[in-house]
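Good day; I would like, with your permission, to put a structural problem before you. What I wish to show you is a protein chain and, alongside it, a tokenised description of its three-dimensional fold. Thank you for your consideration; the sequence and its tokens are set out here:
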Amino acid sequence: MENRYFENPLKKPKEYSAGPEQALLQEQIKNLLHSRSVELVESEVRFKAIFENAPIGFVIFDRQLVIVCANPKLEAFLGYGRGELVGKHIKDLYLEEDCAEAAKHAGQLDCGDADAFRLERRYRRKDGTLAWGWLVCSVLRDEGGGHSGYLAMIEDIGERKSRSA
């Protein structure tokens, strides 16, 4: 007796002959999927070009404020090599006395009191020296509108700060 629930995986699947309507529908679906795939690849290429070649630092943090990715401009600003910032916590980049203020701003974003914040911020470079940056930070949202992390853009303002000192 043949078991109807568990087909032999080595058995050749049944061939179905599609009528002209089904063949046309299959072709339309195939074309649509191809078109969407091309659009997705083009979108990814554009995003990567913007991210990698931006004139200011870009960094994406997860919800725990751990760096997911950073662009070359930010890495150079902070004195890190390619990929060295990934996995670091935001506390690794701030002075200890600035961490409480950073947590306050992140909390305002988390609870929806603000969509973004902007401020001058001191950063600790890899070699321990200080750098000044203009920070703009906002919440990243997933497709359902849920909070998935943060996007920060940081502009080097060290030259301006030294002129005004």
DSSP finds four helices and five strands in the chain. The first helix runs from residue 20 to 53. The two ends are 90 Å apart (CA to CA).
